[in-house]
Amino acid sequence: MSAETPPAGPRQRHWLLSVTDRIVLTSGHIGSWIFFVVGGCVAYEVVVRYGFNNPTHWVEEVSRLGMVWGTFLALATCLNRRQMITITVLLDRLGPRARFVQEVITFTLVAVLAAVIAWYALESMMQTISVNRRTNTVMSMPYWVFYLAIIIGFALLLLQALTDIIVMAVTGTRPRGGFGQEEI
Prior knowledge:
This protein is mainly α. It contains 4 helices and no strands.
C-alpha cells in the first residue's frame, strides 16, 4: 500500500450526524424514563386507592404531564431511527435515486411542519404565561409547562430533519437506512 492511498475501511460518519444523534437519542432516553416513572405513579395510585382506600390528588395530573413530555421528547428519536409509520405502496416501486429524492422531500416537509408547530406552541406558551393560565386541579399547574414540551419536542424534530437534509445534500447519500416496511 502506498503512502498516498488511505486505508480502506468504513466510511466516516458526518460530524453533524454524531452531534444530532447524541442530542436526539438522549432526549428519547429521557422520554422513555419519563414513561417508566408515569407507570410507577399509576401503579402507586392503584395500590393506595384500592389497597388502602386512600386515593391521591396528584397522580392523574403528574401522569398527564409525564405523558406529554415523554411523547414529545421521543418524537425526534422516532425519526432518527426511522420508526415513523410509512405507507410503502409507492416506495417499494421507486428506484434508489427516486427514493433519495422522496426522502429529501419528506424531510423538508417534516422540517417545515415542525417549525410551524414549534412557533405556534411558543406563541401559545407566551399567551398562557401572560394571563397566568393554570390547570383547574388541586395542583394548579401552569399551562406553559405543557406547551414547553411541544416546543422542545418539535425543535428536536426540526433539528433531526434538517440534519438529515444537510447530510444528504453534502454527501449525496442517505445517512441511514430509509423508511421501509417492518416485519411484525
